[in-house]
């Protein structure tokens, strides 16, 4: 086993890499088992519109609870699930679960919330994602206009199947968001072609933007560019009032972050929403 790197340079397969491979393989086996045993759940983080401080949406985020009570963070298993292709079935479960939750909230009289769901490019490239999405709508009764599919900005966005699938999803009535914007390498031309409604500024540019002038100018450019393309812009990972104040100045439309709330299980999110309405 050898890995190519750079211009035909061949890297030796070092012992640490072998260890990593073994732990990855073990992880992949555990993901399948965890899915069968119902160890995955979703938590929801509110998204706030700055203009009127209204909660306009939530983002569904995946959590894995092990039988010993510990939690595994998505960053620790999603890349492996993507490599192994398991993200296709896991992602299908996520979409159905989020749609079900959305319908339950709408029926339960919770103010209409846009439900954002992360979709891995791998789900689009490998599977028939529009068919998966169609099935999720049919089985849950969710309205696609209330579901926002988040696609991470990356080279993969240049893939023509990703573009055509995004168009199909848009035609089905879904909203599309571009996630982690500013960290990928997508071309402006491609960005203009994507039928998106929302651009999410990666939290790397939000952290400490009240004193880091470079982050602030990058965020400012992203907001201007998003607006120029007719998109709303949301800043991720907002932790302080100072960061939020800068975002207001930059005319960013929406924020999401620990300042308002961490991602919460459904019942806790309902309580959070009630307390917020009561306080207003
Ligand atoms: P993401 O989609 O960019 O989600 C935002 C991440 O930022 C979440 O991490 C959230 O908990 C975290 N976050 C939110 N506010 C703050 C803040 O104020 N400060 C800091 N430091 N972090 C904040 P999480 O839940 O660990 O998810 C990490 C990534 O895993 C997600 O990034 C997304 O790319 C991926 N992911 C999560 N759930 C899913 C899923 O269902 N499907 C797929 N394909 N990917 C998912
Ligand atoms: Mg996201
Ligand atoms: Mg992401
Ligand atoms: Mg993000």
Please characterize this protein's 3D structure.
By secondary structure, this protein is α/β, with parallel strands linked by helices. The protein contains 10 helices and 11 strands. The strands form 2 sheets. The protein has an 8-stranded mixed beta barrel with strand order 3-4-6-7-8-9-10-11, surrounded by 4 helices. Helix 3 (87-107) runs parallel beside helix 5. The longest helix has 22 residues, at 15-36. It is globular, with a radius of gyration of 20 Å. The mean pLDDT is 91. Ligand C2E binds next to strand 4, helix 2, helix 3 and strand 8. Residues 45, 61-62, 73-75, 78, 87, 91, 94, 118, 120, 179-180, 203, 236-239, 257-258, 263 line the site of ligand C2E. Residues 24-277 form the EAL domain.
The end-to-end span amounts to 61 Å
Tell me about the largest β-sheet: 8 strands, mixed, barrel
Rounded radius of gyration (Å):
20 Å
List ligands, each type once: ligand C2E, magnesium ion
> Which shape, going by the Cα principal axes?
globular
Model regions low in confidence, pLDDT < 50 over at least 5 residues:
none
* Adjacency order of strands in the biggest sheet: 3-4-6-7-8-9-10-11
How many beta-strand runs? Answer: 11
Query: Could you give the order of the helices and strands?
Result: EEHEEEHHEHHEHEHEHEHEH
User: SS-based structural class?
Assistant: alpha/beta
- Count of individual helical segments: 10
β-sheet strand percentage:
15-25%
Mean pLDDT comes to 91
